[in-house]
Amino acid sequence: MFPMDSGNRYFQTERGEWRWRLSNGGTVHAYQMACAVCGRDFQSIRDGQRTCSRECGGGLRKKPPQQRKCRGCKELFGVNERGQRFCGHSCAAVYHAAKKPRTTKRSDVELVNSDNPRWSQDERGQWWYTMGGKGLRSRGEIRNCNECKRRYLVSVYHKSKRTGFCSRGCATDVWRRNNPDRFKGANSGRWKGGRRVEGRTGYVMVHRPEHHSLGGGRKYVLEHRLVMEQVLGRPLLTTEHVHHKNGVRDDNRPENLELWMNGHPPGQRVTEQKHCPTCTCNQHG
Prior knowledge:
Elements lengths: L9 E3 L5 E4 L5 E3 L1 E4 L6 E4 L9 H8 L4 E4 L6 E4 L9 H11 L19 E3 L5 E5 L4 E9 L6 E5 L4 H4 L4 H11 L16 E3 L6 E4 L12 E3 H10 L7 E5 L12 E5 L24
Antiparallel strand pairs: 1-2, 2-3, 4-5, 6-7, 8-9, 9-10, 10-11, 12-13, 13-14, 15-16
């Protein structure tokens, strides 16, 4: 664009024609026209130019926004793009959500998790689950729990649609019923081979949940009684006890065990001890 006062390179001939003076001394034909924005007369070597400057050209390109009624909130708004029908994303989301078929209806059925503040029900009876703090939400569905048989709300996108449980507790109960020994015995993280020493008594305990003497949920039995039963080839009676000859309670070799009827006092016989009562082997001085 060449404004009217562009270095006085525009001049008018004697016949009234406008010319543009080139840098090499030549001239070209120029046109005189009126600016479509400010109305001033200007000269240009381009036929059909509508504005006199860049400022006026920018104002010509800016079209005034059109007014249109939003389909969602029914309020007027400025349309900046062709085919715009809503004043914002929120109105568009609400409008399209209302057009979708309802997954829940208004009813008096008690729902397990309807007291959750994230769940809300609109005027049509549709349940919605609000996600995060940005106002995003998803439609809900009413389903029956496979465990407690109660009805609960679940998002159409939530993974619990596939499991069919109203809570983690119901899912855990089913899992434990189907896997009763998952964390017991050899599957436990604290498993040490099924053999342990009791810190209070010093006796060795062996994991034998099928033993005839166990009951009430107990699964460990005394090892020295098992060894004696293997030696005798029969179960021990409740009135029979096993004595350790050398007094070491975790030494369960068959030659170190002795069967007693009824109870027996703690300790060892004098003949079983390594030293006699009056021995001075361990005395100093």
